[in-house]
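in:
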């Protein structure tokens, strides 16, 4: 096994060393003195260029520094006060006075009372509110999570510029929270600079950075190029090139401007043929190295992902099995000992029945997943009533929903709806979707189930909508993969093995249908199961 792991590394080492050795051999042949002289002159020129451009960089960077206030991501509750009653009323004068009161403070919900008063006035009479005053209040005097809402409600020509400024500052705040000290960061392919400042933070946006980079690249020699680096991180400019000069900038420790030779053939005009061979071998070495490294990375990542998925699956299934088994055992021992009051015996029996049902559903999911993986699941298509199947599933899940005070609301579909389907499989898919909706919904919320018909596609559909935390767009496809579960917070707060939705997808595809998701963070989720009448 160790030999199998070391073999790709050994071949990759050889692939890197052989071109480098060939390059060194060719470099020793020919007009070595001319090449050295050309490079020496280029380095002297590069040092002069670096010194001049660093002075320009320092001046332009200082001109493009912007400032932004910092507010808590999670609102910190304040103390209750009489001003909170004003916010619930319709007294325009009192609300206007509260909006202008710098001592208004923070509401018990953790939001600035001045901003709440301004929003209240916007709802009552938008025309009476000076847009610029409201923008100054929410952006500079009392920034909070309500700022974006307030700016959106403003109907003014400056609205777009205010929103753009706020969104730019929001991006800077996110980066600053990730890296609180003064630092250069790459976010979404763009370069940001953030640093702490009195009462907030200061930052340089990517647009300013790109503008400076383009200005300082003008009038360079044909063989030269500039790049900016911080530590080992490349911030701008080409990654490939011969480093000729490096000069630090004063804006942040570790930031340096480098001059590189991107067209060495122009420096080696007297040995063009030798340079052509050298560059060819170098390109071959780089390509081969990149290919080998990519291969190793893919293999390692695949193995790590599979191992992690297996470990998570085993741990999840073990945890899911342990809880109902332990509950059943404890209640059975208590019943056998006869120490339970007669009034609670029936309750214990109901609990044992519910935990047994939960255990059976889990085992059935695991077994079905195993059958689906091996292609041994047998489908029994017959004429059935989707509405009756759905009602049956809702009745099964109502006790589980009642534990969290969740209301299941069903909208019946058209009468006399019949379809060819595997009723057991459809029931299993709907139970999994309902279980997920209940699991990720907050207490005392609602889950809506709607049965409908798409006549143009020849499908019947079941849409299940919850009021949960929602799912980011990047997760919409991966959520149906086997063993995949959402982030660490949801994993700790909810149970599951990560195979329920993959089973739902397999059942839908076996019926020549599909399952889709419509969701965004903070707005709940809607899963739609779509099955044709005649698969």
């Amino acid at each position: 096994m160790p030999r199998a792991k070391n073999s790709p590394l050994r071949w990759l080492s050889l692939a890197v060393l052989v071109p480098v050795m060939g390059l060194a051999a060719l470099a020793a042949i020919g007009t070595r003195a001319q090449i050295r002289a050309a490079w020496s002159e280029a380095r002297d020129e590069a040092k002069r260029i670096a010194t001049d451009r660093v002075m320009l960089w320092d001046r332009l960077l200082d001109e493009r520094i912007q400032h932004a206030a910092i507010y808590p991501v999670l609102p910190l509750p304040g103390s209750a006060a009489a001003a909170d009653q004003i916010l619930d009323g319709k007294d325009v004068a009192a609300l206007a006075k509260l909006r202008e009161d710098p001592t208004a403070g923070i509401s018990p919900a953790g939001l600035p009372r001045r901003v709440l008063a301004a929003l209240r006035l916007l709802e009552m009479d938008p025309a009476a509110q000076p847009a610029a005053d409201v923008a100054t209040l929410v952006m500079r005097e009392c920034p909070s999570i309500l700022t974006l809402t307030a700016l959106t409600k403003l109907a003014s020509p400056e609205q777009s510029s205010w929103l753009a400024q706020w969104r730019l500052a929001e991006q800077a705040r996110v980066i600053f929270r990730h890296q609180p000290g003064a630092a250069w960061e790459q976010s979404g392919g763009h370069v940001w600079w953030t640093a702490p400042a009195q009462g907030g933070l200061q930052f340089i946006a990517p647009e300013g950075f790109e503008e400076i980079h383009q200005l300082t690249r003008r009038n360079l020699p044909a063989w030269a190029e500039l790049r900016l680096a911080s530590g080992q991180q490349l911030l701008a400019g080409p990654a490939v090139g011969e480093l000729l000069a490096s000069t630090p900038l004063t804006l942040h420790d570790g930031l340096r401007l480098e001059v590189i030779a991107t067209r060495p053939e122009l420096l080696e005009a007297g040995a063009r043929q030798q340079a052509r061979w050298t560059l060819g071998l170098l390109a071959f070495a780089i390509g081969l190295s990149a290919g080998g490294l990519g291969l190793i990375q893919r293999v390692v990542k695949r193995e790590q992902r599979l191992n992690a998925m297996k470990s998570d699956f085993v741990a999840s299934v073990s945890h899911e099995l342990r809880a109902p088994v332990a509950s059943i055992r404890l209640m059975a021992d208590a019943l056998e000992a006869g120490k339970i009051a007669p009034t609670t015996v029936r309750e214990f029996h109901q609990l044992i029945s519910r935990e047994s049902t939960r255990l059976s559903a889990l085992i059935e999911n695991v077994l079905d997943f195993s059958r689906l993986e091996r292609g041994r699941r047998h489908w029994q298509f017959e004429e059935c009533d989707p509405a009756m199947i759905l009602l049956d599933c809702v009745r099964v899940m109502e006790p589980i929903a009642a534990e969290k005070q969740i209301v299941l609301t069903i909208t019946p579909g058209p009468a006399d709806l019949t379809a060819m389907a595997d009723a057991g499989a459809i029931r299993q898919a709907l139970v999994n979707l309902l279980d997920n909706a209940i699991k990720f919904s907050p207490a005392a919320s609602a889950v809506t189930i709607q049965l409908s018909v798409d006549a143009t596609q020849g499908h019947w559909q079941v849409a299940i909508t919850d009021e949960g935390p929602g799912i980011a767009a990047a997760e919409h496809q991966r959520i149906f993969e086997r063993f995949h579960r959402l982030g660490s917070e949801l994993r700790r707060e909810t149970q599951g093995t990560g195979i329920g939705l993959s089973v739902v997808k397999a059942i839908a595809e076996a019926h020549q249908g599909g399952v889709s998701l419509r969701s965004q963070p903070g707005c709940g989720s809607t899963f739609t199961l779509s099955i044709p009448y005649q698969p």
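note: The CA atoms of residues 80 and 208 lie 44 Å apart.
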